Amino acid sequence: MTDGVPPPPAAAVPTIHQFLRAHAGPPAGGVVVGLSGGIDSALTARLARDALGADRVLGVLLPDAAYPPALLAETQHYAAELGIAHRVVPIDPAVAAVEGLLPELVDPVDRGNLMARLRMVVLYALGRPSGRRVVGTGNKSELLLGYFTKHGDGGVDLLPLGDLYKTQVRRLAAELDLPRAVRERPPSAGLWKDQTDEGELGLPYDDLDRILYGLEQLRSPAEIAERTGLPPAEIDRVIDRVRQNRHKRRPAPIPKLGLRTIGLDWRD
Q1: Which distant-in-sequence residues (6+ apart) come within 8 Å of 213 by Cβ?
Q2: Which residue among the candidates 50, 92, 107, 142 is catalytic per the annotation?
Q3: Catalytic residue check, 142
Q4: Which CATH class for the 12-199 domain?
Q5: Listing from the earlier edge strand, what are the strands of the sheet with 133-135?
Q6: pLDDT of residue 110
Q7: What residues of the chain score a pLDDT lower than 70?
Q8: Which of 40, 153, 197, 207 is catalytic?
Q9: Peptide bond before 27: cis, by omega within 30 degrees of 0?
Q10: Contact 263, 253 (CB under 8 A)
Q11: Which residues contact 236 (CB under 8 A, 6 or more apart)?
Q12: Domains of the chain, residue spans
């Protein structure tokens, strides 16, 4: 009744290191990663530092006015401990400028999406002059659930944690002895006051991941319910969310008109 997600594969760390070297090593200029203070970005920065060297990793903190000063200081300290260069770029002026142009953007979700997209604008602007790849911090749970902003935190060059569930990210962070404060902080995108991932998603990641892992194993909803002991209605809700967010995981569709069509039968 407690069918769970397995621990990260034994080769997870060396595989991610190899992946980062292949995609962001020379002749690329390294990587730029947004540092939020959360476990995903902290683990991503650590893996990038270990794979590429500290001089090839730029961490960027992108706070808004609601970002806690203590968390900002903690995250800067973490970057310094990693030995990577880091910058702080407050995004409030850019958010205010867009909101001035579009006063109808009053819904907190719309504002959160705007903030996520503006943060990515900054990361790409900082990465391009030195040829750095923009490394995303999304994990497998978030990708499957569509819990990211399209062309925001989902608009990146590389996703080194993209095949690890959130619970596996937590285990890997513990194995690498990331700071306890980072590992124990409730997951939050920080897009509005008191926002948390699990509050929005409606279930703890432990339960979400057991459902998602069941889907990966091609189990039926009934079998997932039997193995996990979770309510069938919650399992159906998660399955519906995965289906409804398929568009966020796929390239923009193109109608078939030519001999070979990008995204269909043009293989790069």
Answers
A1: 3, 4, 5, 165
A2: 142
A3: yes
A4: alpha beta
A5: 85-88, 57-61, 31-34, 133-135
A6: 93
A7: 1-3, 190-193
A8: 40
A9: yes
A10: yes
A11: 221
A12: 12-199
